[in-house]
Design brief:
- The structure is a single chain.
- With 486 residues, this protein is an alpha+beta fold.
- The chain has 16 helices and 20 strands.
- The protein has four domains: 4-93, Uridine Diphospho-n-acetylenolpyruvylglucosamine Reductase, domain 2 (2-Layer Sandwich); 100-217, Uridine Diphospho-n-acetylenolpyruvylglucosamine Reductase, domain 3; 219-335, Alpha-Beta Plaits (2-Layer Sandwich); 433-481, no CATH class.
- A seven-stranded antiparallel β-sheet has the order 15-12-14-13-18-20-16, sandwiched between helices. Strands 5-6-10-8-9 form a five-stranded antiparallel β-sheet. A four-stranded mixed β-sheet has the order 1-2-4-3.
- α1 (4-14) runs antiparallel to α4 (53-66) and α13 runs antiparallel to α14 (393-410).
- It starts with a helix and ends in a 5-residue tail after the last helix.
- The structure holds flavin-adenine dinucleotide (FAD).
- Residues 32-33, 71-79, 82-83, 94, 114, 136-138, 142-143, 145-147, 149-150, 152-154, 202-203, 207-208, 329, 418-419, 422, 455 line the site of flavin-adenine dinucleotide.
């Protein structure tokens, strides 16, 4: 519960309508898209809904004076607990800052506010023949600020790259309340790449108040193919064969039999119910190139035992095939009351063996697992299905998820493919980073946020907070130099 004095200061700065402190209003801000049983829920002391960067600055200055934590929030669709205010404090919801401020097609950028919904941007710029390429499957609800903070991916990132490749500049409010502009429209900005540092920093270094995003020319032609396979192995081999043939589809997504069942029951997207796996493949570019690549990919799928290859012939058909994929998580309720989405990534060639391992883990823990994922870039999303009210289920899910992560790291992968670290993955970081690496990251955090008020307890593993960092750095340095640390 926020102190009345803090609420009064915030109301004076933002207006009464933009400050929520009533417990019933705060309840919806306790969670993000991750499962509450696993990520937990925390009620912020107060929620503010600023409308300008200057208001964000005022909020941060009040928080700093009161020593209150500050957590930024966009659409709340994050799957790693990133927007949960674990230490209470002030939650800054940026959803009212949702304007497109400028569209510059000559220099191919748009200047937008952070609360803009991802899909709204592409829908608006499509009138001029442009789009914003990063397209998380949550794009109807997630915001550009959240995409920047999590360096989000999406089906089309196989060809176009993840969010960081599409951010030219940022305006951010720093933890001391100052406003900073980094980057810009020119192709190269000299000096330290602060834009690169801020993208993916999950609200721990600054609050994004404007983003200058790259606009990509809409392709001349687009084909969407559905290929059905008798086994996961055959579908995985087709993924490798397509890439090995030198064709780069725009998107290359895989769904297994459980996912197909859920999606078909919910949306009737036209996926064959008897397939063990389907690939949804999109190819875009110049008309002739798309036609040629579609033909080539169809042949490759057939060579890899595809039982059906279908090219959508109308926009409605294309949209329906994509609806099944993009809304697949929403269909999981058809299979189980809860799911835990494990986000991880492996080198593409390790997909078949990793999917086998996921199946073994599913059997070992007696928990069904549905797979729906960005196969083209090796980014797996095993959905572990469970019932949080069943005794022991949560523990088994956590163990199963941990085994999957360990396996993926063993075969050369990483702890997260695209959903970020947040609360969920922070204690896995020592599996892939040395103490020295982590101390360097924590040192960067300290230089931005010495009071550690921005999104506390996120991203950095336990033991890498203020005070511990300089000791860790010295220990790491001593170890490198082979001397004793006193
Ligand atoms: C159904 C579904 C499908 C999804 N598919 C994908 C996918 O394909 N690819 C993918 O990468 N992710 C996916 N996600 C995860 C999620 O949608 C993305 O991470 C998304 O970018 C989060 O945006 P958001 O606006 O909801 O952010 P939130 O969940 O509100 O916040 C996420 C993080 O960003 C920080 N943050 C938010 N706004 C700001 C800001 N203005 N300044 C600084 N920090 C900020 C928060 O503090 C938090 O750490 C999916 C989620 C769901 C529920």
């Amino acid at each position: 519960m926020a102190q009345p004095a803090v609420v009064a200061q915030l109301e004076a700065a933002l207006g009464r309508d933009s400050v929520l402190s009533n417990p019933s209003e705060l309840t919806v801000y306790e969670y993000d898209g991750s499962d509450e049983a696993l990520a937990g829920s925390h009620r912020p002391d107060v929620v503010v809904l600023p409308q300008t960067a200057q208001q964000v600055q005022q909020v941060v200055k009040i928080a700093r004076a009161m020593g209150m934590p500050v957590t930024a929030r966009g659409g709340g669709t994050g799957l790693a607990g990133g927007a949960i205010a674990v230490q209470g404090g002030i939650l800054v919801a940026l959803t009212k800052m949702d304007r497109i401020l400028e569209i510059n097609t000559r220099d191919r950028y748009a200047l937008v506010e952070p609360g803009l919904i991802n899909l709204d941007l592409s829908q608006t710029t499509s009138r001029d023949g442009y789009f914003f390429a990063p397209d998380p499957s949550s794009q109807r609800a997630c915001t550009i600020g959240g995409n920047v903070a999590n360096n989000s991916g999406g089906p089309h990132c196989l060809k176009y790259g993840v969010t960081v490749n599409h951010i030219l500049g940022l305006e951010v409010v720093l933890p001391d309340g100052e406003l900073l502009w980094v980057g810009g429209p020119s192709p190269d900005v000299p000096g330290v790449d602060l834009t690169g540092i801020l993208v993916g920093s999950e609200g721990t270094l600054g609050i994004v108040t404007k983003a200058m995003v790259r606009l990509t020319r809409s392709p001349e032609a687009t084909d969407v193919l559905l290929a059905a396979f008798p086994s996961i192995e055959a579908a995985s081999s087709a993924v490798s064969a397509i890439i090995a043939a030198g064709v780069l589809p725009t998107a290359l997504e895989m769904m297994d039999a459980l996912t197909i069942t859920a999606v078909e029951s919910a949306y009737h997207a036209g996926y064959p119910r008897d397939a063990a796996a389907v690939l949804l493949i999109e190819i875009d570019g110049l008309l002739e190139v798309v036609a040629e690549n579609t033909r080539l990919i169809s042949v490759i799928c057939e060579q890899q035992e595809a039982t059906e290859v279908r090219v959508a012939s109308t926009q409605e058909e294309r949209d329906l095939l994509w609806l099944g994929r993009k809304a697949a998580l929403g269909a999981m309720g058809r299979l189980a009351p809860n799911y835990y989405l494990q986000d991880t990534v492996v080198p593409r060639t390790k997909l078949p063996v990793t999917l086998q391992r996921v199946e073994e883990i599913s059997k070992d823990y007696k928990l069904p697992v549905a797979n729906v994922f960005h196969a083209g870039d090796g980014n797996l999303h095993p959905l572990i299905l469970f019932d949080r009210h069943k005794p022991g289920d949560i523990e088994r899910v956590l163990h199963a998820g941990t085994e999957m992560i360990h396996w993926c790291i063993e075969v050369g992968g990483a702890v997260s493919g695209e959903h970020g670290i947040g609360l969920e993955k922070k204690d896995f970081l020592p599996l892939v980073f040395t103490t020295e690496d982590l101390a360097a990251m924590a040192g960067l955090k300290l230089s931005f946020d010495p009071l550690q008020l921005f999104n506390p307890e996120k991203v950095f593993p336990s033991g890498f907070s203020c005070g511990e960092v300089s000791a860790l750095r010295q220990q790491a340095l001593a170890a490198r130099l082979g001397i004793d640390f006193v």
